[in-house]
Give the backbone structure.
Amino acid sequence: MNLKTIYSTSPARGWLPWGLLAPVICLVFAIVTEIPSALLLERFGFLDAQGEFVGTQGLMALLLVSFISWMLAVAAWIAFVERRNAGTIGLTRAGAAAGFSGGLVAGIVTLSAVVACIWLAGAYKPGALFPAFQSSSALVAIAGLFVCFLVQASIEEIIFRGWLTSVITRRMNIIVAVLLSSLLFTLLHFSRGEPWLVTGNIFLFALFASAWSISSNNIWGVMGWHAGWNWILATGFDLPVTGLDAGVPALTVSLAPVGSDLLTGGAKGPEGSILSTLFFVCGIIFFAWRIAQKRRDVRPGHNKPAGAQI
């Protein structure tokens, strides 16, 4: 495992921005693409005058338009300025389908496990079972949200864990890259007045995703995990995802918070729970251990399996 490159050692044929400049460029792309996206969405009634999405359709439009426009800007930069191939940002050919699908299942299972633990701790009161199945329109909306969260989560992983982390690594080192990309991820998800635990969990979320991608030497698995996590949180239990209400009945069971915000995450939902903190910390430790094992296996005196990727 090389601390100066991740995913691929293929050289950039163009210009790589300085390490500290890369997060600024990423932030500029986010702002510059968000302004016309918001104006377009407001023009067609998907956003209100305060910039809040209107209903489930507004959320879907927001996830698609905002993130796709941001991705197009970053993709153009990678292709025409840095002139790097997809493998250098973690979109390797090997293991794409299996990695993404496995990550998707893992995301659904791990978020459900966190919610179940909060429930078992007595912080949720269960309501109706499978209420979404009483309405065909609700199921259609949930299916549409599945596609939208696939797009949104995948783009976030491509930008933060794929492009930003890899370019900073090449200019500086992998530790600085993970910290800077995770701090920017936290900044862009930050809301004024939110509890410190929520902000801390966002940062841990980013560290967890970074550790997974570095351990796997690609971003396919963490792309799927992020998508599955967001989608089942938004649709599975009638709970908020990062403080947002998807506006659809629960796919599995409707849960109402009755415990402390420390357990439930309050208005931000389970992602602000202390149990999510525990999950992310354990996940970071696990993937850090895997990374350490891989580094040990490629030291002099250790045999590297034929064809293995580090």
